[in-house]
Design a protein that fits this description.
Layout (H helix, E strand, L loop, with lengths): L1 E5 L4 H11 L5 E5 L11 H17 L4 E4 L2 H14 L4 E3 L1 H11 L4 E6 L1 H6 L1 H9 L4 E6 L3 H6 L6 H16 L4 E5 L7 H8 L4 E4 H15 L1 H6 L6 E5 L4 H11 L5 E3 L3
Parallel strand pairs: 1-2, 1-3, 2-9, 3-4, 5-6, 5-7, 7-8, 9-10
Bound molecules: D-glutamic acid.
The site of D-glutamic acid has 16 residues, from helix 3.
């Protein structure tokens, strides 16, 4: 099966995109809801949590690990690749590939958690592909709690998004990377404030496509992955709010299994 983890809810956007791209494959999702958010924690702590999350998924039978969290992707990918003998996908590289292909002016905005933005990994990867790029990054720490709270369509959310995007707008970005897996949930609000001509790069779709392409071209991984379209969802803390927002993101009811980390 394909194992996907995040600090909590946001990675469900990736799970949904993977389910859409690869409906026949079995998926196990782990949301570390007891220890969320990761984006406000130190790199050492995020690495430790991401390693434990990956170990849990591999114990469950994961033959691919998907780090469906930008904060964990930005600091823990190398550690996970070193420790576990399975292909590892993170959400940053596919988003950077998409953004650098689509941008016309080479002026790219990146929004994410403090952990992701201060890691500088988006800048580094964008420059590797497009040395002339002008990159404008901004940490948006209030957006994750707003999404977790279910405030997708509140005027307050639109106001905060507008405030965060203002400096990027004045620099005339033509492409905006949603560098946090929670942000696709409020994509309409972000698109409205960024301007309709700005390309939105949703890392959940980017990584799901990259995984599909990888599986399609690798017969050995095809043989290792179980099929049947079965999905399992584990969380380290079950709350009514998580269940409600999870239903909204996945557009269906799910059974949550509790696991202690
Ligand atoms: N989903 C996480 C990310 O993509 C953000 C949530 C968190 O801070 O834990 O960075």
């Amino acid at each position: 099966m394909i194992g996907i983890f995040d600090s909590g809810l946001g990675g469900l956007t990736v799970a949904r995109a993977v389910m859409d791209e690869l409906p026949d494959y079995d998926i196990t999702y782990f949301g570390d809801t007891a220890r969320t958010p990761y984006g406000a924690k130190s790199p050492q702590t995020v690495i430790q949590y991401a390693m434990e999350d990956s170990a849990f998924l591999v114990d469950q039978g994961a033959r691919i690990i998907v780090i469906a969290c930008n904060s964990a992707s930005s600091v823990a990918t190398g550690h996970i690749m070193d420790r576990f003998d399975v292909p590892v996908f993170e959400v940053i590289t596919p988003a950077v590939d998409m953004a650098t292909e689509i941008t016309k002016k080479g002026i790219i905005g990146v929004i994410g958690t403090r952990a992701t933005i201060s890691s500088g990994v988006y800048e580094q990867k964008i420059r590797e592909r497009l040395a002339s790029a002008k990159i404008h990054s901004r940490a948006c720490p209030l957006l994750v709690p707003l999404v977790e709270e279910g405030w997708m369509n509140k005027p307050e959310t639109r106001m905060i998004v507008k405030k965060y995007l203002h400096p990027l707008k004045t620099r005339q970005i033509d492409t905006l990377i949603l560098g946090c897996t929670h942000y696709p949930i409020i994509k309409p609000a972000i698109q409205a404030k960024a301007g309709k001509r700005v390309n939105m790069i949703d890392s959940s779709i980017a990584v799901a496509r990259a995984i599909r392409q990888f599986i399609e071209t690798d017969t050995s991984i095809q043989a290792q992955l179980t099929r049947g379209g079965n999905t399992r969802f584990f969380v380290s803390d079950i709350t009514p709010q998580f269940e409600k927002t999870a239903r909204l993101i996945l557009n269906r009811n799910i059974t949550l299994n509790h696991v202690t980390m």
